[in-house]
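Example 5.3 — Nucleoside diphosphate kinase
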Amino acid sequence: MTTEQTFIAIKPDGVQRGLVGPIISRFENRGFKLAAIKLVSPSQEHLEKHYADLSDKPFFKGLITYMRSGPVCAMVWEGRDAVKTGRTILGATNPLASAPGTIRGDFAIDVGRNVCHGSDSVENAKKEIDLWFKPEEVQSWKQNAFDWIYEKA
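Solution (predicted structure tokens):
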């Protein structure tokens, strides 16, 4: 079985609202394995690298200011189809288009306060993990529940 990793960040609004625990629970309950976690206050330069693909958008400056407004909970989650499924757990970028039961559908209203960031591709997940974590900060371990989550091939 092949697994992949995804980068999930709980944005300042999610941290300030005390949603770190409920968000972690959503990923754990689904069966994903937490490989790394830290609470950080990223620099402007760090955030500009992270959101470089949005640098030409009119909301870019406001996004960077907002993301510097409080701590961010950066995480690496691992499992089968972690990127695609992680985005499904988060819901649509616009919370009003997110289904109930998703993180954004349950906890957010405005796009600019949509609680979480999730990698949108396996390639971007790798880049984002490398940007936010040193290699030694990402743990490799076997979940005791692994055989209860995944069928043997």
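Remark. The beta strands are 4-10, 33-40, 72-79, 116-118.
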